[in-house]
Amino acid sequence: MGSWNDFNDAQSNSNLIPKGTLAKVRLTIRPGGFDDASQGWTGGYATRGSTGAVYLNGEFTVTEGQYARRKVFTLIGLYSPKGPDWANMGRSLVRGMLNSARGISDNDMSAEAQAARRINGFADLDGIEFIARIDIGTDASGDDKNEIRSAVTPDHRDYAQIMGTAPLQFGGHGAAGHAPQQTTPAAAPHQPSQPASAPGFAGRPSWAQ
Q1: What is the distance between the alpha carbons of residues 122 and 43, in angstroms, rounded to a whole number?
Q2: CA 92 to CA 89: how far, in whole Å?
Q3: What is the pTM (predicted TM-score) of this model?
């Protein structure tokens, strides 16, 4: 039988990026217009859902490689009336994004590294580029969809190759004296690299404390 009689060997039409794929992505926050200055949520970036949950509506665009221009949509949790778990997952993802974008080992607790994990507001995250680990979850209808739950930091062996940066010691205090070398913090589109004493890193919003 010919290829137009037997379709068992035809490629599956699944449009999903395979689970575990590492890709450089750029985050665009789709503004929801919800602000709460007491939490540090300003600029209209946050969205408040019908259940009372608050989140950042993230659109992650793959910038290069096999899946360039593909988009992954993921909500970054800020608050849930059900408890702190969703917000903690959101904060963990943002920490990983900052580590990845600014070339910081997760084990680096130096003053410079801690300063680089602070932001002035969500505008600092809008446009940030980092390496994401693509995952597969389910949407509201129960169908499979790609999502991003974690970022890849300089601790990963493939970080420098994917990020396109040469390792450079950041001068931190890594764990056990053998933390991987880190790169100099990469400037986010809205946030140039600054030393710890620079005003740009001085204010830590209450939601990130």
Answers
A1: 7
A2: 5
A3: 0.74
